[in-house]
Structure formats: C-alpha cells, structure tokens
Amino acid sequence: MSTNIAVQIDYLDKLSIQTDTTFRLMLEACTRRLNVKIYHPQTLSLTNKTVTAQTAIINVYLQGEDVKYDVGDYQLQNLAEFDYLLIRQDPPFDMDYITATYLLEHLNGKVRVLNNPTQIRNAPEKLLMLYYPDLIPPTLISGDEYAINNFRQTYGKVIIKPLYSYGGDGIYAVEPQDDIADLLNKLTKQYNSQLVVQQYLPQVEQGDKRVIMINGEYAGAINRVKAADNLASNLCQGGSAVKTELTSKEHNICNALSPYLKQNDLYFVGLDIIGEKLTEINVTSPTGIYHCDLLNGTNLAKQFWDNLIGSKTYCLKPIA
Fold first, then answer.
1. Are 313 and 28 in contact (CB under 8 A)?
2. Greatest CA separation for the chain
3. pLDDT digits (tens, 9 = 90+) for 108-161
4. 139-200 maps to which CATH number?
5. Who's near 274: CB < 8 A, 6+ residues apart?
6. Options 3.30.470.20, 1.10.10.10, 3.20.20.10, 3.30.1540.20; which CATH number does 203-283 get?
7. Whether the Cβ atoms of residue 200 and residue 159 lie closer than 8 Å to each other
8. Which end of the chain is more exposed for a tag (fewer CB within 10 A), N or C?
9. pTM of structure
C-alpha cells in the first residue's frame, strides 16, 4: 500500500532550505519513497464537506550535503485522499491561520492531521503553558497599562512580547523604572493583540533551550545562545545553537506535559525553557531538528516517521 503525505507549507522561497525543519521531514519521507505533496494554505477550499487545495508532488533529495528539491505542477485535489497531513505553516497565528484550522477539521476521521488543528487553535504556544503555573515564570497576559505596571511592581524587570507573533519578533526587556506607555501603544497597534509579560529570567544570558517532543516524548534539545546585540536567542535572530543536556527539572517539565500532548495529538512540539522554567509550548510549526541532529548525532526526522508509520520503506505508486 502507498502512504500519501500532504504538507501545508509556506511559499518555498521564504524558507532556508538547508536547515528548515519541514524540508528535513520531507527529505526523510522522500528517502523512504513516501508520496509527498505540498500545498499553500491560501489555496485551501471547502465546499459540500469536501476540503481541496492546489497540490504538487515534491521530491526532496541530497546532492552531496545540499538539500535540493523538484516540484511538479499544481492541481486541484481532494485532501481526503491523503493518509497524513502535516501543518507546517509558520505563524503569525492570525485569522488566516485560524481559518485553515477550521477547514482542516472537516478531514477528521479521514486523514490524520498533525498537529491536530483543533488543538493548534485551542492551545496557542504562549497560552497553553498557563495551565502549568508551577512550571513557568510569573506571567501576565494583558494589554492594559495599569495591570502591566502592577505586575512590574511585583516582579521587577520583565519581558514584553506580542501574544501571537513568533521567531523572537517584537520582544522587549523593560526595567522597573521605565515608562512603557509608548511601547505598549506601539505593540498593541502593530500586532493587534494583547501582550505576554513575563518576569525576566537572567539565566537567558546562558541560553534558551529548545526541546523537541515527538509523540509526547522527549526527543532532543539544543541550547540557543543569543547574539550580543540581540535580546532574542532564536536562531533566525542570530542566535547560536550549542549542545546541551536537560536537567532533572527540565525532564520533569517534559514528563508533566507528555499526557496532554499525547491525548490531544500534538505530535510534534517544541518547548522553550529558560533557567528550568517553561516559557513557550510551540505547536504551530516548531523548528530545530537540523541543529539538534548536527550537535547530537541524532536523526529526528527518522524518529518522527518511525513513530508515525513505522520504519518500513514503501514502494509507491504516486496518487494522481
């Protein structure tokens, strides 16, 4: 039997092909001779309970050490014809993203969609962690200056960031004496959302750990060390990936989250941990497996597919 994979993905020219997690997952799938097609969320359609998109066959392969790909012609296709569908569309988590999750819910019982679109919508990465107050630093969700100032009076220096942005965008560190009125006005207007306010963790100077969870289990981690001129440690913001190990407290964080992730089919998740405190649970399109493999000698894409469909290599006849 053939195994057919659809990948909801951003336009390819936006991606760093060599290090992109989605391409690493597709590379492993194509190495196994799975049938992989891509589509862009802008082409999703729903009519008469049928979800369609403009899909194209993609072949991802290595040429030496370089990742290369070939893409066929796009054609309208019923997404119910696939066995698995991977949501690998980057945030921002805006109304278009939310709409895509609503449309993909119509595939329930027909296609396994990962991560579960209902849970992506119900558990944004900067909000899901609030169900685990013992694991996170003191955190406030608000756009109200009075509430934020009260929080600062209690906790001193804080980090302020947009609720639905990503990749370290829009992060500010604010000292207790700083006047924040203009900053709050700027952020709430620019990002059209409330803000996340967290107690500043000085351990961020030693790094921000990205922990990969596959099927609810710890799979690997890297430590992201920020550049000297940047507050954010994200790799896309100039941070450096460094080999790391988890402490017992950090393993306990993984263990505490595992039942929820499994129960809600949040199959591929990236945790952010600073100073043994959970700061985000990334469920939309987590990244980091290239650097994790490079530093740790792992193959997380193989682990991803082994857990999902087994280790068998399939001989396929591509679907039309």
1. no
2. 65
3. 999 999 999 999 999 888 899 999 999 999 999 999 999 999 999 999 999 999
4. 3.30.1490.20
5. 137, 201, 203, 204, 207, 208, 209
6. 3.30.470.20
7. yes
8. C
9. 0.91
